[in-house]
Amino acid sequence: MDVTLYEFDDMRDSRYGEMLVFKRAHIDVYNTTPVNDCPAELWDALDVEKLKKEYHAHKVIKNGPHFWMQDSMSASFGETATFGGLEARWAAKLGFHIALKAAHGSVPYKIFTPKKTQKLVYSAGKPVYELVDPEGHAYVLQAHDHRFPIDSLATLGEQMEKLPEGWQYRTRTPTEDLVLDLGPDQTIYAVGDEWLQYYTRIPETT
Fold it and tell me: Domain count of the chain?
């Protein structure tokens, strides 16, 4: 698929929505960021059963609205699709095994490996929110759900009822810009919480 690189600034707390289209062997993820801010009147009116038939999909899930946590981003997006009047661009593909496990709903705190091209920059001096796995790998929150305003994220961990033993949720403030430079030729590790908020593992530097 042909993709186009976009660059965005002043993103923190900007609104977007995602559509997850479940095919037989994978999930296509479409994102509104390059085209609109996910207008509520269009988002709220979406009929996922109608969209499932239109896209010949096993299932269609509305994911959001969410609000970005990084301060700037460059990301590649593909073709534009229209969901009940709401335009979104192809953003990522999730593989067969993830599609199988997610077919009956999301799997919180289960690590998966999306394929995408994205560079996320979290500015120094601003808080980031992370999940840390038992091996010490940190996954930084990429977006927060509308149910959790940005000012409430410091205490989000207190509401996590399904967080596995050995995992922790934390807040920290980087003293330097935190940069996640992600590409399709590398293994990207990500994880979702019980509210479909996604966290991406900070790549290890050598």
Answer: 1
